[in-house]
Amino acid sequence: MSLWLVILLAGLLTFGTRLSFILLLDRLKIPAWFRRGLRFVPVAVLSAIILPELASRNTVLDLSLRNPQLYAGALAVLVAWRTRNVLLTIIVGMVALLIFQAVLGIV
Amino acid sequence: MNEPTLPTTPGREFWLGVRDEAPILLGVAPFGLIFGALAIDAHIAVPLAQAMSSIIFAGASQFIAAQMIGAGTSGVVILLVVFVVNLRHALYSASVAPHVRHLAPGWKFLLAYLLTDEAYAVTITHYNQEGDLAHKHWYFLGAGLTLWTTWQVSTAIGIFIGAQLPQAWPLGFVLPLTFIALVVPAIRDKAGVVAALTAALVSLLTFSFSFKTGLLVAAFLGILAGLLVEGRPK
Prior knowledge:
Shape of chain A: extended
Order of helices and strands of chain B: HHHHHHHHHHH
Order of helices and strands of chain A: HHHEEHH
Number of strands of chain B: 0
Structural class of chain B: mainly alpha
Number of domains of chain A: 2
Largest sheet of chain B: none
Distance between the termini of chain B: 30 Å
Strand content of chain B: under 5%
Number of domains of chain B: 2
Shape of chain B: globular
Structural class of chain A: mainly alpha
Strand content of chain A: under 5%
Strand order of the largest sheet of chain A: 1-2
Number of helices of chain A: 5
Radius of gyration of chain A: 20 Å
Oligomer: heterodimer
C-alpha cells in the first residue's frame, strides 16, 4: 500500500469516526441514560489523557516524588480551578515545570 | 466567557469561537512544531508530512503514524492503530450530535472534520452555556478553523526548522497543561469530580495498554462513575 493511500484511508477513518454519531443520532432513538452520560464525556476523556501525560516521562510511568511534571501539573490544576484562565494556567504550568526541573536537577 | 446578554449573530458567534480558541493555540502550536520535526526525522517526504496534518488532522494519531512509517510498519497495521487511537472522537461525536442535529448535511460534514480534542473541549463548553442554539455552529466553526489553521502552519514550520528544535525544551508539556485548563473549569458538581477522578485513576492502571485503548476504558468507566453518582433524575 502506498503511503499516500495509507494517509488518505487513515483520514477517512478518522473523519468517519468523528461523523459517526452526528449522523447516527438522527436515525436512532437514543436512551435517556446515554444522553445523560454524554455530559461526562469531556471531563472523563480529557482527564484520561492528562494524568498519563503528567505521570510518565519518556513513555515510562514515573509516580515518584522526583517527577517534576506531577508538581507542575498539580499547580496548574490549582490555577485553572481558581482563575479559569487558560493562558495563565499554561504559563504557570510551564514556568513551574522549568523551576521544578532545575530544583530536582533534571534536564 | 461570552456575553449572553447581547443578541447573537453568525458573525459574533464565529469571532467568539476564534477568541475562545486563541489561548489554546499556545498549547497546540508547539505540538504541531514537534510533529513536523518528528515527521521529517522519520524520513517522511515534506508533502506527505503536511498532508498528514490536513488529511488525518488528529495530533496523537499522527505522531504514532509517523513513528510507524519511519519504522516501516505495514499500511494495514498503521490504519488499525490510527482508528483505535482516534476512537475517542466517536464519544465527541455523540456529545455534539444533539446540538448540531438541526443543521444541513454540509454543515455536519464540515464540523465533523473539525472535531478535534481542542475544538471539541471549547465548543462543548459553549453549547452547555445558556443561550440561543440558532447560531452556535458558527462558534464551532470559528474555534475549529482557528485550530485547523494553527495546526497546518505549525506543522509547516516544524517541517522547515526540523532538527533545529532544541531537544531540551519540554514543549510537549504544554498539551496536558492546555487540557487541564479546559477540563478543570468544566467540572461543576460531585458527579463531575467523580467522573474525572475515576477516569484519571483508571488511565494510570491501564497505562500499559497498547494504542491508547486504556484511554477508552478509563473514559467509559469515568462516564459510568459519573452516571452512578448522579443517580436517577428526579
